[in-house]
């Protein structure tokens, strides 16, 4: 298998433009490719598929890559078969997964990516690269027919991973507590992916990349930090 | 209908003992009642049903109320029919809702409470008092057969409601953003219930109570604050 994948924690760093910090990553991932399909189904803030696609298209236009929204094709499965690459934007993972399952596209997209077409995800778009979406931070605003996702990597992701903020007396669960609760039910490892970091898959090799270490959670063990540049062998 | 219900944001305030701040509320809600059923299915941190029930029993023992875990009955539906009152503890709302639906108890519990048996919920236990669980903050660590809950009140709850923390550059969605995303899909009003606050239902009257105002979200309108003591007519 010749996988070529980037799964990023976030699309946007604080104070920066959309996808700005990922520009070198995008250039390398989509090298030689002049058009991709954008999957807009996560609809951050309820933005329309058209508006969300226009936002992505604007950022990719600066890199000479044309973007077409998956929602614009009358036969989206055929469009995925014919596509040269993919970007799935962030937003609400429940919305995204519901659409992909209901349109029968989850497996189609998985096959295309496993056959070597480059894929980039950000946030919700990275969650669906994991085995299931059950370590998302998102609110269950719709009911998907299944929580299973593409399993492009042999673990789950928790994008926007955040450490407890010192001095905050709020009694809601911390992110670490939530992921440990997940491990009372499932044994899938979880990569807590801090903002500014991403996972890079090239064939059989999976590495942590970016500006911050990841926090790695495996069932029954203490969590640990993994520095950028390290292989991700869970 | 003679409803008698407390839906609290949290079981525990920072630095306090379990249920401590709710002691006067519990005394009034369960006045004249010497035993209740505890619903332990939300299992915070993966705690066992037995251990969680022991924790609740310890707090209620000081008030002279005996607590029995719903999981200990061979016929839990019959136990609910015969019970004098209920407390559902916090934890993971997906776990709680899955158990209640799979055991066929959601409607049984709803009927018992609507017929006047006192009910207290905390956090996840309050979420199930709403129309559905789709404004929970919890991670979807299991897949419930439905997101529908008891609808004891004509709106949804968001327990542990928290305002954006000034100066934090994290790009994950704020709670307000998530609830607004919910309103791109559904029109059910949402009560953002801050810690230290609860909803009190007495018959047809629903009021906000506690130490902090609630934040009220209705589809298509600006959110607003509602002071303790105010009627909740959404």
TrEMBL record, chains A, B:
This is Dipeptidase PepE. The keyword Hydrolase applies. SUPFAM superfamilies: Class I glutamine amidotransferase-like (SSF52317). It is an enzyme of class 3 (hydrolase). Belongs to the peptidase S51 family. It holds the Pfam family Peptidase_S51. InterPro entries: Class_I_gatase-like (IPR029062), Peptidase_S51 (IPR005320). It comes from Chitinophaga horti. The gene is pepE. Its EC number is 3.4.13.21. Keywords: Dipeptidase, Hydrolase, Protease, Serine protease. The keyword Hydrolase applies. One of its GO terms (molecular function) is dipeptidase activity. Coiled coil: none annotated.
